[in-house]
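Subject: Predicted fold for Drug/metabolite transporter (DMT)-like permease, 312 residues

User T.R. writes:
Posting the sequence so we have a shared reference for the thread.
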Amino acid sequence: MDHKMIKGHGAALITILIWGTTFISTKVLLVDFQPVEILFYRFLMGFIALILVCPHRLRVEKRKQELTFMAAGLCGVCLYYLLENVALTYTLASNVGVIISIAPFFTAILTQIFFKGEEKLKASFFVGFIIAIAGICLISFNGSRLELNPMGDLLAVLAAFVWSCYSILTKKIGSFGYGTVQSTRRVFAYGLIFMVPFLFFTDFRLGLERFAQPVYLLNIIFLGLGASALCFVTWNLAVKILGAVKTSVYIYLVPVITAVTSVLILDEHITLMAGAGTLLTLAGLLLCQSNPKNLKRGIQNGQRKRKMCHGD
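User M.O. replies:
I've generated the structure tokens; pasting them so everyone works from the same file.
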């Protein structure tokens, strides 16, 4: 694996490590904030941070490219999070966690449609997908009874599909040749613009005095600077290097990181079922990322070494 690929996998892993812990900050803020308020403030803070990091204006060369940035902002910043938050009001969080994890499958299908031949799918991807989803189900439900809610579950499916659209759009943006920070900043700008109309149909209020409490201020800073500004840059960089499909399968790790974080920070106990689910999820992820040719070559090399040891 060359340096560039290591950089791509590292960027994806850093992103998922942070995204897997955001539930703690969100949980703290939900005591006194509406979901749409958290969403708006975190991306506004992320947008401002990206301006400070890279103040140079991005000059888009073609109108079609501008439309791509707009679509990415609508999908990845506005619609995905709104659909996910609304889905949580109708169905169980465990349902949403499992359903969102099918996003890599949608991403793979869309990649085959719009980028034919660029990221060929192997049988290992689909086998890994099934194994990872089985593991995620064990982690998410953890012995609890499955309760379906058509409205909430459908919204979660739409959220997963919208995120896969964002991944495809990010791949397209990566081919434009612009800087990752500047591109992410432009996506944030359009996401915030599309978000504003929704604020008038919710219980949104400024309430800036709430940030006078250090616990709220620190958690929104973590979500704004870490989970939004930093993570969207690293995620977009990973997509640019690895491709949409290989990057998207890292989403499988979110429930694993969430479970581990719950044990370390919230002092929750991990069950045997959750432990088994973690192992299955990791196995599915590794299988999705594996190259069957390299695996076959490794097996052949191993057999050759054994023959040499036995003097055959």
